[in-house]
């Protein structure tokens, strides 16, 4: 898709985020239950997701990669963290595991859902897709370290009760998570930025160099004024996505209870809605043979989900009563281990066929199935 800076101020991408934000503010304290109102809010949620993708592409075209994917991942995650804190302080059931369930769902969605869909779409359209294994491998290793420190180790330590960290252990995990995330961002945007740019490849999918950032998009980059406007509308769209997800969460909870499903399904559904902008952006980039950007979005979102959430939750626990259960159950540990092994085998090659995408999607389907039928 060609990104241009001359769109009308009354285009759908401008109007929808503002309408969604107005609807969010007007309904925030009303707790709507009318089916028609809920349907309208759901439609605005979908529109806000699509407009967020559009404005993220405008900004990415202005600032270039990897900054564009980084902005979208961080923006979504910052607001997602706010949603987690709000739901943890709302007094709803299973608040002790909500952060864990949501973060793990985000990791599985990004590691298998977004990566798998991107590889499959890209490979079906271009036969083989290529990416830089050096940059992608460093991103994956950071995700694995973050997930191990925050989601796996709490189930095996002895200082805290059950699957929880003690106060000192939680503080260490928070500092370690922030350190890893900041270190990766500095690597990605600093002297090793080239490792995260789209690559050119030969007919066998072997990387031959870094792709010219303007080589696949004939439109001139938007002006600074247009980019700033898109940034404001992106934030409005993302606030709307997360806020509307919060308004719809009681309906989701009621449906989960009516179907007698595990409460963890609520976190999965909300994570799917919140991560929809990254998912759509990643798949669209894969269809344009820019899988490196898709992987930047996926692994960057997984990193941000852990690296920003855990430090924030650790600070919030000063005021939130009750335990914070971060450790995964055995089934989820096995799923995470399988996902890591498959991801390593995918990334190390620097190129992928449709089969790799299918393998990741099957693991994602297994996560969804076992979330419903544990």
TrEMBL record:
TM segment ranges: 9-30, 36-55, 67-91, 103-124, 136-156, 168-187, 231-249, 261-283, 295-320, 332-348, 355-373
What subcellular compartments does it reside in? Membrane
UniProtKB keywords: Membrane, Transmembrane, Transmembrane helix
Q: How does it sit in the membrane?
A: Multi-pass membrane protein
- What domain of life does the UniProt record list for this protein's source? Bacteria
Could you name the Gene Ontology cellular component terms for this entry?
plasma membrane
Domain Sodium/calcium exchanger membrane region positions: 36-189, 230-372
Q: Which PANTHER family match?
A: SODIUM-POTASSIUM/PROTON ANTIPORTER CHAA, SODIUM-POTASSIUM_PROTON ANTIPORTER CHAA
Name of the protein in its database record: Ionic transporter y4hA
Q: Which organism is it from?
A: Nocardioides guangzhouensis
């Amino acid at each position: 898709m060609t990104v241009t800076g001359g769109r009308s101020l009354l285009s759908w991408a401008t109007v929808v985020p503002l309408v969604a934000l107005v609807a969010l503010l007007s309904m925030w304290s009303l707790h709507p239950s009318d089916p028609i109102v809920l349907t309208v809010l759901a439609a605005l949620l979908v529109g806000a997701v699509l407009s967020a993708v559009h404005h993220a592409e405008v900004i990415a075209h202005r600032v270039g990669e990897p900054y564009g994917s980084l902005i979208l991942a961080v923006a979504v995650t910052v607001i997602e963290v706010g949603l987690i804190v709000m739901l943890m302080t709302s007094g709803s059931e299973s608040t002790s595991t909500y952060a864990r369930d949501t973060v793990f769902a985000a990791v599985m969605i990004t590691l298998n859902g977004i990566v798998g869909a991107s590889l499959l779409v890209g490979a079906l359209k271009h036969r083989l897709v290529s990416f830089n294994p050096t940059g992608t491998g460093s991103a994956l290793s950071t995700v694995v370290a973050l997930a191990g420190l925050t989601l796996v180790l709490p189930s095996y330590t002895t200082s805290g009760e059950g699957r929880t960290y003690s106060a000192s252990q939680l503080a260490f995990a928070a500092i370690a998570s922030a350190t890893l995330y900041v270190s990766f961002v500095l690597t990605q945007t600093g002297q090793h930025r080239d490792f995260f740019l789209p690559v050119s490849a030969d007919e066998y999918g072997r990387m031959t160099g870094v792709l010219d950032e303007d080589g696949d998009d004939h439109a001139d980059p938007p002006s600074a004024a247009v980019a700033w406007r898109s940034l404001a509308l992106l934030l409005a769209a993302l606030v709307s996505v997360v806020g509307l997800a919060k308004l719809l969460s009681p309906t989701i909870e009621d449906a989960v209870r009516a179907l007698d499903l595990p409460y963890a399904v609520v976190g999965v559904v909300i994570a799917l809605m919140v991560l929809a902008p990254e998912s759509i952006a990643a798949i669209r980039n894969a269809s344009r043979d820019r899988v490196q950007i898709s992987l930047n979005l996926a692994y960057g979102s997984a990193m941000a989900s852990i690296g920003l959430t855990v430090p924030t939750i650790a600070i919030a626990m000063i005021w939130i009563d009750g335990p914070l259960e971060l450790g995964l159950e055995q089934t989820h540990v096995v799923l995470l281990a399988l996902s890591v092994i498959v991801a390593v085998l995918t990334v190390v090659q620097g190129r992928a066929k449709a089969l790799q995408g299918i393998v990741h999607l099957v693991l994602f389907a297994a996560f969804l199935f076992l979330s419903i039928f544990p």
